Amino acid sequence: MCNSIQSYLKVLVTALATLMLYTAPTLAASKAEIDRDARAALHTLYSNNVIAKTVGNKAKGILVFPSILKAGFIVGGQGGNGALLKNGKTEGYYNTAAASYGLQAGVQNYGYAMFFMTDAALAYLYKSGGWEIGGGPSIVIVDKETAAAFGKSMTTSTLKDDIYAFIFSQKGLMAGIGLQGSKITRIHPK
After folding, report:
1. How far apart are the C-alpha atoms of 113 and 105, rounded to whole Å?
2. Cα gap 83→34, rounded to integer Å
3. What is the pLDDT of residue 22?
4. Measuring CA to CA, which residue among 160, 149, 88, 157 is closest to residue 121?
5. Which of 22, 72, 78, 127 lies 20 to 30 angstroms, CA to CA, from 99?
6. What DSSP state is assigned to residue 103?
7. How far lies 6's CA from each of 1, 2, 20, 58, 187, in Å?
8. Residue 19 — very low, low, confident or very high, per pLDDT cuts 50/70/90?
């Protein structure tokens, strides 16, 4: 009996996670809402992180996901919408989504910004119909430890990687945030 309940719960959680991931683009906020939230999140990131501002000044484009919802109990999912900013203007709108399986339980909200440092990395984003992080351009996740390692030595001449990603505004109770395996897809909100 206990095995059948566990199996039922796994199927239910999988179905809910799948529903959340695949309906996220259709439940997308308006262009104005995504723009407002992305710009506000980037402004907050710059205010709290000098290194992010340094990287942003050199970036060819910045893909900002202001709010990613991650939830799971054994099976989990995460998703959210964002905007690609280039030279201060919005170039397009994107959705990020991922599914996971394993020892996990909780709900968390966070944001992240990806700074595209090369024309080739930005071109990869444009041409890919659905880009899965981990395949394609190299990405450096800049967390507290990485930022401390860069310290004051991070300058526009030392930025050698294709993309730098900054995770920010973490709220909730769930261990760990990973971008590996997230799929980024262009969307067309109203």
Report:
1. 25
2. 7
3. 47
4. 160
5. 127
6. E
7. 9, 6, 21, 50, 36
8. very low
